[in-house]
Amino acid sequence: MTNEEYGRLVGKLSNPSPMGKDLTWAFLVGGGISALGQALLNGYQRLGMEKDEASTAVSVTLIFLAVLFTGLGWFDKLAKHAGAGTLVPITGFANAVAAPALEFRSEGLVTGVGARLFAIAGPVLVYGISASVVYGLILVLFGA
User: Fold this and answer.
1) What would the pLDDT profile of 16-42 be if each residue is shown by its tens digit?
2) Which domain covers residue 68, as residue numbers?
3) Residue 1 forms part of a structural domain
4) Which helix (H) or strand (E) holds 10?
5) pLDDT tens for residues 62-118?
6) CA 85 to CA 94: how far, in whole Å?
7) Nearest 10 degrees: CA dihedral of 127, 128, 131, 135?
8) Is 80 among the domain residues?
9) Is residue 3 part of a domain?
10) How far are the Cα atoms of 2, 3, 11, 15, 17 from residue 6, in angstroms, in the given order?
């Protein structure tokens, strides 16, 4: 079977995606997560934190909530409807780290959780760190 034949077969057998509904869910959930982050930032600042401290507290809170929801099985249910809306960077990354760890916990702390913890997130970390080094070198070499 050629690639073109396979593509036609998949197109014929798969259900069409309701793009309007998917886009709406992604927009509403992603916007909701972002609005929650802004509300947390405002709340932490009202408690007397400086903006940089409040920003850190928001990041920690959103990571905690994403990992908690992953552990309770709620994140996957939300992601099923919201799709890319749950990939707001910090919550999606927290889920990507927590989900494999939970999946392999029956294999033990070292060979299960420890080995699989960064299965998905590892390449993201490597790319992010490498990119930041390259950008830093460019900034140093060419000045700001």
Assistant:
1) 778 888 889 889 999 999 999 999 999
2) 19-142
3) no
4) helix 3-13
5) 999 998 998 898 988 888 888 888 887 788 878 877 777 777 666 666 666 666 666
6) 14
7) 180
8) yes
9) no
10) 6, 5, 9, 16, 19
